[in-house]
Fold this sequence. Notes:
The chain is an alpha/beta fold. The protein has helices spanning 96-103, 107-113, 154-169, 189-212, 233-248; strands spanning 2-7, 10-15, 45-51, 54-60, 70-75, 124-128, 138-143, 173-177, 223-228.
Amino acid sequence: MKTIEFRGLKKSLMIFGFSLMTTVSFAQQTTTSNSSATPTAIGTTKTWGSIDGVQMIGMVQGPSAANAELQIACVFEYTEGDIFVSPPALPAALNGLVHLDEALKGKLTEIRKTGEFKGHALETLLLTPPTKTLGARKLLLIGLGDRNKFTPELMISVGEIATREALKLGVSNFAFASDLKDAGIDSPTALVAGNVVRGVVNEYRTQNILKSQKLTTFKPLNKVFLLAGPSFFTVAGGGIAEAIAQYKN
């Protein structure tokens, strides 16, 4: 895994090996078949359920502002102006990736444009921004690959990677944003959110099995914050609750 640590606006780059990370995005505010007619207020939180001691908490918030130990955000391979061209990307006022780029003073776009983070499917990059830049102390980027080849099934693997990396970093909670609609992808909201949860649970159970066999150690997770935009909170929550119920049947 690559890691970039910002000091002011200077950076040092260290190569660590393979990495991973977990928030369902500060997403689109327009009303579609994947959204609710009545937007949910920003800052709203709801525990959609818990499994294996981990609360799955929906939150109407963007990845730059969510208060968690680790923030995870997802991005596609770079194309010029991809998060700024509206449509298909969300307008700047509603776009969580634009807010994240602004909080980092343009560094998100810079590292994508220069190829320091290519955004290949399941590629990861860990950033340590200056204190108080974001709501979280660290930011993990996970690549989604070619936007024209995206399928919702990829989000299961993304959820697995997010969880594995969170455990490696020793955090007890993380926020996850898929950022699909921010990037202009009209994805099935409930299925994407549910698949992220499926990936989180799959990996957490795998890691607990390895821990019981004394093959790994980690600090337990207690909360995963799944970020959604005001128009998508309820629909995403339905997918999250359905995924949780699947594991309890």
